[in-house]
């Protein structure tokens, strides 16, 4: 179907539905993909680019992140945007995104997106929360071994011409206790690998989880900190996890224990960690994420941890492997394409999850209504009163918080009915966004 590009009268109905203007005697086809513009930033994997290109969209790729002002200019005319962790899609940016219907975060987190405002505007957000689990787990294992052998300091000294061969305070990891905070996809991967290397694994999680191998859970964070030789953090950023490891928690750790954070930069109090390292209370640390990270690559990084003994600092590379980026690219790009072409919201971060199977190719005159509306009583009654006079072959609806999502497939004999249905639905005061597909 062709795309009208017209905007609807109010903010709540602000965008076109990619409406049909072609006769309905044609066989069922997806929306006219050639009119959809996609902006991909931060060097998203080529596999992802290829999947999106194969959908027939207009694509612009930029290898770096953009400043707020650059984003405001670029985002005005795009229907979809793909980002990684550096690009910040704030309210100030999204206010200018008048055609945007979907954001693809080609990474684990979505902290870089104002999810509440995106939801308010009817913009779906997708990410890939599990695709880089193995990559992060492997990095942590490498860091555990490196810290236990003081590889960072040894490499630095030897590279400077200093020969300092010593076994003091260098250990095997076999038999040591690894405490994992957050026993999710990354934590469980790490648990299995660590056990295979002879480590004893304990973990703490706020949710009940089945243990893998011979690992066991402990009943409190403090218990884990007091027992562990190595502590590795794998939690999301939430109000409960911000600064969850402060001076009080670090003081509970065993003297000489080592802390690893490859989760979120706000989880650990960096000055407190630096003090513990410089005082000798902790034997080492590996940190891959920081409360404030540079906007772009270059000599911009500052941290109290620079120069601390037996400390490994890396530039947020936990998931930065070709394998992980390829898997992330496939998952997120397919989610974006399916949302644009079919209306499928499965695995959306901020939307109810709805899906209708793609309709078979027939000569039946069929369209799909996709509607996002405020989750208040009476809206479904209004929608069904609009479409009820036609043959509704199937429909689905769900809600999440303040937003509800509705999909319906309708067969029509009247070629002008599409415009009537569309105009009636976007005329509802509760309407956020409506699209007509096929």
What keyword list fits this structure?
13 helices, alpha/beta, disordered N terminus, single chain, 29% helix, 3 domains, seven-stranded parallel sheet, Rossmann fold, 438 residues, Alpha-Beta Plaits, five-stranded parallel sheet
Commentary on this structure:
This protein is α/β, with parallel strands linked by helices and 438 residues long. The chain folds into three domains: 1-23 and 359-438, ACT domain (Alpha-Beta Plaits), CATH 3.30.70; 29-132 and 321-353, Rossmann fold, CATH 3.40.50; 133-313, 3-Layer(aba) Sandwich (Rossmann fold). Helix content is 29%, strand content 18%. It is built from 13 helices and 16 strands. It has helices at residues 46-54, 68-75, 91-94, 115-120, 133-148, 151-159, 185-196, 221-227, 247-252, 270-279, 322-342, 379-387, 417-426, and strands at 37-40, 58-61, 80-83, 102-105, 124-126, 177-181, 200-204, 216-217, 230-233, 258-261, 284-287, 311-313, 366-374, 391-400, 403-411, 431-437. The strands form three sheets. Strands 8-7-6-9-10-11-12 form a seven-stranded parallel sheet, with helices on both faces. It has a five-stranded parallel sheet with strand order 2-1-3-4-5. Helix 1 packs parallel to helix 11 (322-342). It is elongated. The model is unreliable at 1-30 (pLDDT under 50).
